[in-house]
Structures are given as structure tokens and as C-alpha cells.
Amino acid sequence: IVSAFGLPAETREKRTLKLSAQIWPGRNAAAHAAVMLLHISAYATVFTFIMPLFESTRESGAFLLLAVIGIAGAVGSLLAGPAIDRFGLKPAKYLMLASQIVLLPLFSIHGLSVWAFTLLSAVWIGLSTPFMIAQQVSLVTVAPKARDAGLALNATANYLGLMTGSMIGALIVRMNGFDSLGLAGGTIAVLALLWSVVASNTQSSSRT
């Protein structure tokens, strides 16, 4: 069939791409991947230690917390697509990034009740975790001819963010205790939002 009709247009296009483009998606895609690194670093700073943080001042409610977190993540992911379609990609991304700036420092409030902590966790997870979906759309838009490399770079940034955030969280706990995790994560989240603005402006200027 291939010899008779030839390769599909998409396959021919991929074969004509330079090897460097298949490995490296470009500066704009790398700038967007850096946003993912910072966002997940802020996320992991708190999430890695969410159970010790919760149990440090509470004796029960862990099962409820885990169940609500799982449901919130699933609902947030389901609503991410319609939200991007309705409000636009950039506003949706900024909302997800800003949610961590606002919500993470609240985890540093000592003595939150079980219900308050659980509700805070649900809102935070529901707003922040769907960022991966918006980020993938961004990378496909920024580097359409090297989208595989772009998505791979984004996945790498995600895992590096998990590692970096966990290390930062462990250091914070050792130095200042669990109550400082939220403030540390919120600080990193500010960097993520600022760098997202820089990456978006870099993309816009490269088009003009």
C-alpha cells in the first residue's frame, strides 16, 4: 500500500524535519517547559508532604482528605478543556498558576480544622493539577512541527519539578517545620506565573 500510494503527508513531513528539530523543540517551547518546572515544583513542595502536614495537628480525617483530593483532581481535569475553550488558553493558564499563589500560603495557617484543610486541598488540587492539559496545548501551538519533542520536554520538566519540589519541601520541613511549606510553595508559584508571562511575551514577539 505504501509503495502504491506513498506515505501520509504527516509522515513525509516528519521525515523531512531536521534531526535537531526532532530532539529540541526550540527556545519558545523550552521557555514554556520552564513554567511547568516551576509550577510543579511549587505543587510538589506541599503535596509531597500533604499527609504529614495534615496529621501534624489532626488525629483523624486522612481518608476523607485523600478521597476528596482524588475527586477534585478528576473533576478539575474534566473541566479544563471546556474552561480553555470558553475563556481562552492564556487566561486559563494564568488562573491555574495564580491559584497556587493564593492557596498554597493558606496551608501555613496553623490549626485549620479537618474540614477547612480538606476544602482548601480540594480547591487547590482542582485548580492547579489541570495545568498539564493547558501546558500541552501551549506546546503544540508553540512548536507544531516538533510537538513530540515539545511534549517530551514538558514531561521531563514535570518530573524534574516533582523532584525539585520534594527536595525543597524536605529542606523546609527540616529547617522550619511543616507550617512553612505553604509559604515556600507560594513563593515558587509567583516565579511560575512571572515566567509564564515572560514566555508568552517571547512567543508573541517572535511572531511579529
Could you give a short description of this structure?
The protein is mostly helical and 208 residues long. The chain has 11 helices and no strands.
Spell out the blueprint of helices and strands.
Layout: H1 2-5, H2 9-16, H3 19-23, H4 27-47, H5 50-55, H6 62-87, H7 89-103, H8 114-128, H9 131-142, H10 147-176, H11 181-207
Rg over alpha carbons: 20 Å
**N-to-C order of helices and strands:** HHHHHHHHHHH
Report the end-to-end length measured between terminal Cα atoms.
Answer: 43 Å
User: Count the helices. How many?
Assistant: 11
Q: Provide the structure class.
A: mainly alpha
Q: Overall 3D geometry?
A: globular
* Share in β-strands: under 5%
Rounded mean pLDDT is 84
DSSP strand count: 0
Please tell me about this protein's structure:
The protein is 81% helix and 0% strand. The protein is built from 11 helices and no strands. The longest helix has 30 residues. The N terminus is likely disordered.
Highlighted features:
about 210 residues, mainly alpha
